[in-house]
Design a protein that fits this description.
Order of helices and strands: EHEEEHEEEEHEHHE
Number of helices: 5
Helix content: 10-25%
Shape: elongated
CATH topology of the largest domain: Sulfate adenylyltransferase
CATH superfamily of the largest domain: Sulfate adenylyltransferase
Strand order of the largest sheet: 1-5-9-10-2
CATH class of the largest domain: Alpha Beta
Number of strands: 10
Largest sheet: 5 strands, mixed
CATH architecture of the largest domain: Roll
Distance between the termini: 16 Å
Length: 250
Amino acid sequence: MKEHPIIFSSEMVRVILGGRKTQTRRVIKARNVFRCYLADKWHVNKNPISGWQVFPYPNIPQEELDKLNQSAIRNNLPGFKCPYGQVGDRLWVKEAWRVGAWAEDSGQLALDYMADGYCRREWITVADEDLFNRLWEQSTMEAQKRFGIQERYAWKPGESPCHWRSSIFMPRWASRITLEITDVRIERLQDISEDDAEAEGAHGYTNAASPIDFFICLWNSLNTKRNFGWDMNPWVWVISFKRIEQRRDI
């Protein structure tokens, strides 16, 4: 069992915490060439293939590509593994966070999470001493800007003067959500079903005609700027998961 990081927006973190999201789609990052690694037993256009091949994406019929890609995933072929992991692996969620409090004598932090304003009361030991010192120094300076120089600082939970930190820079020990992968497949984005749209978090959707319409709006809000909007219909990894209890020994 391996662990892999995965970033979710604050909105999606709230849906995961609410138990309404059990699936995510991530763009397969390919540009001009879509790699299909084929074993000897596979054929394209009825011609036997020997060894591994790389085919320009436009030269393979879509239905044939679908079949070969799915086979590549099922057989875990080298170079065609989902970068987020395989069935049974775990995902640790990266989200926006900040230092909520610190204990300089013990090298421990308490954290706040932007998605739902949750304040983690238990102290988390930061094994990396240099990282702890950086976070402690930065947090102390931010407290000084707010309250002036004091021997000790105090504030109510959730009112930390420290700045919010990007999900990109969340370390493993700061993550509060761990997921277990239950299924991995690929498909075209626009092939999503109503049930899968709901699994993506489109429960109780408003101002949308259907769960898929809700998903389209959500997808475009996150991916249009990356040139992977709904109309582009990119290939995507479809990752199903279940939430498990957070490990406390990290």
